[in-house]
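Let's practice the habit of predicting before peeking. Look at the sequence and jot down your guess about where helices and strands might fall. Then scroll down.
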Amino acid sequence: MAKTIIEEFDAVSIENASLQFFDKGQKQPGQKFGCLGTIEGETELKEIVKMCAGQEKGKTTKPIKMNLTLSGHVKVAVIRNLFGLTNQGLKPGVYKYSTKSKGKTFVLTADVVDEFTDVTKLIAFPNCISATGLKITVQAGADEVAELELEITAYPDKESEEGNFYYESFKEELEDTTIVEQWHKEFNHELVAASGATGGAAS
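Done guessing? Here is the structure:
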């Protein structure tokens, strides 16, 4: 059977967003984000400049992190994990946000869909943390429920030698069906690494 190669892709919608939170160093199974409306990402670069006799002779750039902005309707459990709300020391059903609150790191995955061709791109950011504190916005009498906007920082993963910020794959191009099955549940570098490839030591 001929291998499928996707040559054109128009991102129309995003769905099936999932977050796999780390709890005490252990990654938990993916949980649904809720309804993700938009995701925007921009890479932050570090400039390395070569100077000679006070003049710039060359420059190169190195990516150090990605800044993501997400908006949507987020599930309650996800919000609590993102910002570190707990009910420790409180009665059942009561949660707190305090000076000791610390959001959990997580893997962010989602499907980006080209609805013209029914092609789906799987995306993953393997090492994320919320870049802001808890936000609360309530507008009485609004005609539409406002989406929550989240600012996320995506750092390089610790498993790959290169330090990968981002992974993507078209479902239609994948030969290993395990990747599709596990992408939103247990994504990690090992899942997508070529046979025999070695990753860097986790720190």
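How did you do? The chain has one domain: 13-192.
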